[in-house]
Amino acid sequence: SIVVLDYGSQYTRLIARRLREQHVFSVIVSADSSLEAIRAHRPKGVVLSGGPRSVYDPGAPGLPEGLLEAGLPILAICYGMQLLAHAAGGEVAPSTVREYGKAPLTRYGGELFRGVEGEFIAWMSHGDSVVRLPEGFRVVASTQDTEIAAIEDPERGLYGMQFHPEVHHTPKGRTLLENFLARTGIARDWTPEHILEVMTREVRERVGDERVLLAISGGVDSSTLGLLLNRAIGERLTAVFVDHGLLRAGEAEEVERALRGVGVNLTVVDAAERFLGALTGVADPEEKRKIIGREFIEVFNGVVRDKQAEVGHIRFLAQGTLYPDVIESSGGHGAANIKSHHNVGGLPEDLRFELLEPFRTLFKDEVRELATLLGLPPHLAQRHPFPGPGLAIRCLGPVTRERLAVLRRVDDIFVSALREFGLYDETWQALAVLTPLRSVGVMGDARTYTNTVALRAVTSVDGMTADWARLPHDFLATVSSRIVNSVPEVNRVVYDITSKPPGTIEWE
Ligand code: XMP
Fold first, then answer.
1. What is the pTM of this model?
2. DSSP track, 201-224
3. So what EC number does this one have (predicted)?
4. Which of 23, 63, 401, 422 is the most buried (most CB within 10 A)?
5. Which residue ranges are tagged as binding site?
6. pLDDT tens track for 132-154
């Protein structure tokens, strides 16, 4: 592997992903890890991330003891480079000019720049700079304001850069990462095929002759997990899909068809009556969420008891937990992520399971690639996220069958049009909201007085922050007229131009 030491940069995960894109397995570990802990990952090289501190701050995180002498190639980025320079005997000082943003290199050379030609734009973000080189190093790149913008000691395999090669604002940064990987001699074997092989083997070893339960939500993670488990343990997988009646148009059928199509033995429970019944007259968003969560657990427990009676004891509960949820890093993320709508905590004592989380080492993109390899249809594999409580939290005010039907049609028109116009993959999530507002309109010669829907599309990396998508006006015009012309219950369409923060992605 390549071990990425996390000094708290907002780009740490991006570094790991960039390396994975080169088919190299990378893991993120906390900056205070010991050399021994790092070695446990059998690294061929180490990347030091950036970070918000100054090396002279009291308590600023340092280099793991012995790392510099361990003979491992090191790529040190931003704060990482200052740390490397400092630890190797150089000097770091506050810069006279804080450099922030795009900066062209005024010169570059050296090992990691091999193959780079023409102008090199670097993304800079630093207050301190290396002002004196440690012994054995030389300067290999400069900008207008920063003389020492990149350094190397190729003999020892030590490389530092003040800018961020991992961000797309450094367009040629990829070559630098590639060159570093070449220097480490690491195998480029982290391909979807290899991942599939590893996961299949691990699942088989862990599960043995036991049985596994999987709750499928229709999202890409649980669906892909269904395919993987089916392949690994076949019959011994019990997959349950609870249809709460709050799904999008055709969704339940689509998921069912896709999974059955590749041989997953799926039990679909139609619990729409029950969920809609429990939601009757409820308008408060938190109340809706609580009811849905509670009903889900109850239905799920019921199915599991029936299943246990049918197939015998089920030992494992599989979950599609992803790497970003488990990274133990300086930023202390993890628990902040919104998890799937069912959790082990809600299961009664007699339904205790051991957790099986085969995707714990994967990023979402990797799950999508795996999904495609396992035969999930591309439009399911590439699907936008969808919240556990479903359309209930997009149907403002009380949720009724009629209102859900209106919302479903509007959502379908909007999302289908995004696909048709090639905009779907450019947005991170897109949705329609049925508001409780009615307003006056004119259709033909007649007055209308009916519902307002809001469309929302956002760009985002992980859903934690988001920007409203600048969809073309012509596209919005087309969608608006399609909606009003084909859904008589709607006479007004508005587009949500709020980012997150201060808005959230969902309206409830
Ligand atoms: P917000 O609205 O908080 O949403 O900006 C961020 C992302 O999380 C999704 N979301 C949920 N997902 N259960 C889920 O599985 C939930 O209760 C839930 N609430 C929000 C939302 O769709 C967006 O992708």
1. 0.85
2. HHHHHHHTT--EEEEE-SSHHHHH
3. 6.3.5.2
4. 63
5. 217-223
6. 999 999 999 999 999 999 999 99
